[in-house]
Amino acid sequence: MKRTSLYLLIPVIFWGLSYIAIKIVLTELEPVEMISLRFLLAAPSLWLILLYKNIKILPIKNFKVIFVGSLLIFIHFWVMAVGMQETTASNTAWILTTAPIFIAILGWMVLKEKFSLWQSIGLFIAAIGVIVLTANGSLENLRWENSRGDFIVLGSCITWAIYTIWVRKIRGIYDPLVTTFWMATFAGLIFVPYTFMTSNISKFITLQTDTIISLLFLGIFSLAIAFWLWSEGLARLKAAEVGIYLYFEPLITMVGAWIILDEKITIWLIGGAVLITIGVMVAEKYGKTDVTEHDA
Question: Residue 274: which domain range?
Answer without folding.
Answer: 2-293
